[in-house]
């Protein structure tokens, strides 16, 4: 969806509100929203996604606005409970929403494991995001296939909870 289009935002909002009413849903988890999920050669309805290059010779598309609008939309959908989370937080420090740290692996490592969690949270806090949360406790445990997915070791899981 092109969230730079007002009509796309309205249609998406109505669909989610319909689900909320039909199934008594309190809130949503807004995964994605990052620019890497956008089509490589996409175009946007809103011209503010474009800017001049620093040498003032070329007009280039700047898709970061898409992530901003995605977070704004998430904020508007949950106006009462404020239980929602987003995975993008581009210029949304003023919104009372949870910004989730990117997925972590199920290991002890500083390389995207448990030891990288606190530095990630502190970094987002220093950047002005007051409500930061990790993804699932214990990391993802991803394997190449579903049968290779593994649970984290017990000690890792307990430390992650702490």
TrEMBL record:
What domain of life does the native source organism fall in? Eukaryota
| Ranges where the Glycoside hydrolase family 31 TIM barrel domain occurs | 1-162
Q: Which residues cross the membrane?
A: none
Q: Does Kinase appear among the keywords?
A: no
Family matches, as Pfam families: Glyco_hydro_31_2nd (PF01055)
Q: Gene3D superfamilies annotated for this entry?
A: Glycosidases (3.20.20.80)
The stretch of residues making up the signal peptide is: none
Any Gene Ontology biological process: carbohydrate metabolic process
Q: Key word Hydrolase present in the record?
A: yes
Q: Which GO terms describe its molecular function?
A: hydrolase activity, hydrolyzing O-glycosyl compounds
Q: Which UniProt keywords apply?
A: Glycosidase, Hydrolase
* InterPro entries tied to this protein: Alpha-glycosidase_related, GH, Glyco_hydro_31_TIM
Which family is this protein grouped under?
Answer: Belongs to the glycosyl hydrolase 31 family.
| Name the record gives this protein | Glycoside hydrolase family 31 TIM barrel domain-containing protein
| Source organism of this protein record | Rotaria socialis
């Amino acid at each position: 969806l092109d969230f730079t289009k007002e009509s796309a935002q309205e249609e998406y909002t109505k669909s989610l509100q319909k689900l909320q009413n039909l199934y008594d849903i309190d809130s949503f988890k807004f995964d994605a929203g990052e620019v890497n999920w956008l089509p490589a050669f996409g175009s946007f309805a809103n011209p503010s996604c474009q800017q001049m290059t620093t040498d003032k010779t070329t007009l280039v598309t700047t898709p970061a606005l898409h992530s901003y609008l995605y977070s704004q939309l998430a904020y508007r959908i949950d106006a009462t409970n404020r239980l929602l989370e987003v995975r993008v937080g581009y210029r949304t420090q003023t919104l009372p929403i949870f910004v989730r740290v990117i997925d972590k692996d199920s290991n002890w490592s500083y390389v995207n494991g448990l030891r990288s969690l606190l530095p990630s949270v502190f970094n987002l806090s220093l950047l002005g995001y007051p409500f930061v949360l990790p993804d699932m406790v214990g990391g993802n445990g991803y394997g190449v296939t579903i049968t290779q997915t593994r649970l984290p070791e017990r000690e890792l899981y307990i430390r992650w909870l702490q």
